[in-house]
Amino acid sequence: MEFKSLKNIETSFKQIRIIAIVFVVLCAGITGYSVWSSYVFAEEQRQKIYVLDEGKSLMLALSQDLSQNRPVEAREHVKRFHELFFTLSPDKSAIESNINRALFLVDKSAFKYYQDMQEKGYYNRIVSGNINQIIQVDSVACNLDAYPYKTTVYAKQMIIRASNVTERSLVTRCDLRNSVRSDNNPHGFIMERFEIIENRDLRTIDR
Fold first, then answer.
1. Strands across the sheet with 189-206, in order?
2. pLDDT of residue 9
């Protein structure tokens, strides 16, 4: 009878050990699954960007691979420079503001053009003649197969005077290099060897 009791106690201990082992394994499995799920969820959240629209609504935008956006950013960088550098109004402070913002996107090659036009009195004539100059970028050809990226811009200038409007063709080229992103250079490029290769009158329309 005593032997049977000892046997029952040993069997009970075995059952308790088995139950304990099963419990530990289950806890480890649940813990591992929770950690793995948290990691997957965190990775999914990293692929999302939350955009606050003027403090009113929260919009969700899916982020894309940087390399996919690079060609678009390159064209937009060059286009933005041309809009700032060649859009002029008869306001000296506005001209200086646009030029300063444009020069953050380019090396000293564009600053030489600015100095040359300034020395020739071009900006003073814009102000004194109450002239507006507007640029329309038709296309930006950017070759991203070779670095630095060779870029050519085809655009039109509209020089608006009180008596007439002169339409001019503008063709420029430059090299694009990767740079650090900042508030003044959000696309992370710098233009080098900027050159105006064509800038001629197409037609003049009387007003």
1. 132-143, 149-160, 164-178, 189-206
2. 65
Are 105 and 86 a contacting pair, CB within 8 Å? no
List the structure tokens of 83.
Answer: 């809009």
Rounded CA-CA distance 128/166 in Å is 17
pLDDT band at 133 (very low <50, low <70, confident <90, very high): very high
- Res 164 pLDDT > 70: yes
Lookup: tokens for 102? 């444009």
Provide the 8-state DSSP code for 1.
Answer: -
Percent of the chain with pLDDT over 90: 63
Calpha distance 83→141 (Å, rounded): 16
- State how far the Cα of 118 lies from the Cα of 146, in Å rounded to an integer: 35
Buried b (16+ CB within 10 A) or exposed e, 42-71: eeeeeeeeeeeeeeeeeeeeeeeeeeeebe
Tokens of 200: 């001629």
- What single letter denotes the amino acid at residue 134? I
Bond from prior residue into 148 cis (ω within 30 degrees of 0)? yes
Q: Are 88 and 123 in contact (CB under 8 A)?
A: yes
Distance CA 168, CA 166 (A): 6
Rounded Cα distance between 114 and 36, Å, is 58
Q: How is residue 116 written in tokens? A: 């040359």
Mean pLDDT of the chain: 85
